[in-house]
Amino acid sequence: MNSVMRTITAPTLESIGNAAGPAAWHLEAVLHALRPGVALIDERGDVVSVNKTLETVLGAADQLVVRRGRIAAVLASENAKLQAAIAHCAGSADDRSV
What we know:
Shape: globular
């Protein structure tokens, strides 16, 4: 997988109003304005939100999918790497495989 994953410390969606209020609307607008596929993932690795680009990728279901609330690669060998990268970014030792 030739992608870059970065962890950004920011307020949680709950602390800015989750799906309601101006701060959440601005966050959604910024998320959807980004050209690369982007997912907001909580500390457990569960998907909170995805932008339109990633929605398209997930809709094709030929590379990435959402399983049990988590982004997963279709190929098992790639999924192992993806889950390790997500766990590393989240700083989580939670091993809830998908």
